[in-house]
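Reproducibility note. Readers wishing to regenerate the assembly model reported in the main text can use the exact inputs given here. Chain order matters: entities are listed in the order in which they were concatenated for prediction.
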Amino acid sequence: MSDALGSDQSPPALLIRKLASTAQLSDRDRGAIGMLPFAVLTFPGRTSIVHEGDAPKQCCLILDGWAYRCRTLANGQRQIFAFYVPGDMPDIESLHLHVMDQGLVAIAQTTVAFVAHKDMRALIQSNTNVAMALWRDTLIDATRCRERVISLGRRQAVGRMAHLFCEMYVRLRTVALADDLRYLLPLTQAELADALGLSSVHANRSLQELRKMGLVTLHRRELIIQDWSGLATTAEFDPSYLHLI
Amino acid sequence: MSDALGSDQSPPALLIRKLASTAQLSDRDRGAIGMLPFAVLTFPGRTSIVHEGDAPKQCCLILDGWAYRCRTLANGQRQIFAFYVPGDMPDIESLHLHVMDQGLVAIAQTTVAFVAHKDMRALIQSNTNVAMALWRDTLIDATRCRERVISLGRRQAVGRMAHLFCEMYVRLRTVALADDLRYLLPLTQAELADALGLSSVHANRSLQELRKMGLVTLHRRELIIQDWSGLATTAEFDPSYLHLI
DNA sequence: TTGCAGATTTAACTTATGATAACGTAGAGA
DNA sequence: TCTCTACGTTATCATAAGTTAAATCTGCAA
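Running the prediction on these inputs yields the following structure tokens for the assembly.
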């Protein structure tokens, strides 16, 4: 992928920057996060970081690459719930809910930093403010999930896709992985379809519709937004649900 | 509705019982929750408890009745995100996210107990364990949201409806508002449709399909599950995502 | 270069769901 | 009793999206 996010690339620095994008952190908070011991691991594309049914003893922080959470139904259909990008901690909830009811999968090659639950718990116990920031982060994850519900329930395919493109642009921009209305979107159309509740054929049709409308191009995994306001209108996109400061 | 939930009907007692259904609470925790000052208010059916765009200064606890969170799109379509029943605190998140991006609406006549944010914050600051239980509760709310995503994305209308009926049965049973495979479902078919991402006509068709399959009856707001295992199979329902102890 | 595998695109056809409108029913209140 | 209203039901037609299959295209490795 790419090394954005400013100078200090260490896992704690990334986590601090991420949490500070949605909450206020004091120097004491930053210091406490800075002490967290992380173990860094790289996963090849399309491999599982956490399996459905696992009971992890650690949380992970995406450093580089993308991941998604998904579940497979009995008939083999898949639903992708959410995408995670650098700075995100996709499984903070495993601190509280011990069995993962969905898997976490690396999309392209993805580097992840793990912190043991016990270290996270110690941090949370000793630093209420950081606990609140983490809690807040999980709540924002939930608002994104609700936005997904509205998309699936009440938007048509083209609007859903436009909405996802808008959301990812805004999120990637906060970690300096998008600018100038373009970003790397390492998804196949089949994965896009699984996220949007579509068949891959219809995902393809919808994408072409967006192209035909002159809103985006997507070629070689690079998404270019040609008409932001048109795209946002098509999506009825209002970024306030992301609760960025 | 009905007065279930055992002997002590006070708001703190209800909250304690609810949190204890998904987390361990010590006597000290229970004592601390018991001290929370609540203000009780009753809302007529189809009135707004919290408006979209509000910045509430209090959290609410449903004592009696049902409520739902919803948002209305530009074209007038509505999406209901979640239903809340006695024992639920639908807007704990307002402690952390100050503007509600959706409304909270009472369905039938609904009684609600309000706690001021400052009192909740004091409780959370002084009692980490209760904070963790509340956090955990918001995470379970999020797992329900994800379950909704899977329903909307990958299940057909009949399966979606079956899944909702299963979930509400299990949830209502934990607060003694359902037993013997039946419960009060105070929703119109139009509301059911808004929750399931369907038109009301198709919600009606799907309901009739469930009846024809011999799985449920719904008459005069009473839902009777005639064939639990058939319904659960149709829904591919697995209650583990509710994380009940 | 060639061949291969995965990804995208296109086409033809089917199906689930939406939209609209008419009609039925039951309860509330005059 | 009558009327009004909110809901539920039914029918018809329109359309978004699914399914299947085959034709390209792309990148990659031999």
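We highlight two features of this model. Residues 188-190, 200-201, 204-205, 207-208 of chain B lie near DNA strand D (CB under 10 Å from a C1'). Helices of chain B lie at 11-20, 27-34, 117-126, 128-154, 157-174, 189-196, 200-212, 228-235.
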